[in-house]
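User:
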Amino acid sequence: MSLRAERIRLRLLETLTPQECLVTDESALHVGHPGAAAGGGHFRIRLVAAQFEGQKRVARHRLVYHCLDDMMHSEIHALALIALAPSEAAEAE
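Assistant: Predicted structure:
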C-alpha cells in the first residue's frame, strides 16, 4: 500500500470507524492523465460503516469527502467510492 493510500485509510478509520476499509492506489493506471501530472492520485475505496445506515448515496459520499477534505484537489485527484451500511454489506455476501 502506498504511503498516501495508508494516510487515507488511517484518516477514514479515525473519523468514520468503519467495519471495513479498503483503499487501493490506482495511480499507476493513470500515468499521463492530467490529474496525475499535477501530483494527485487515483484511489478506489470500499467502506462499510454504521454511519451510512439510512443515508442516501450522496450523503455517504459527502461524509467521506468531508473526512478527506484537506487531501482533495492536492493529494487526491479521483476517488472510486463504494460506501455501504453494514446491513447492505451482509446482503452482498
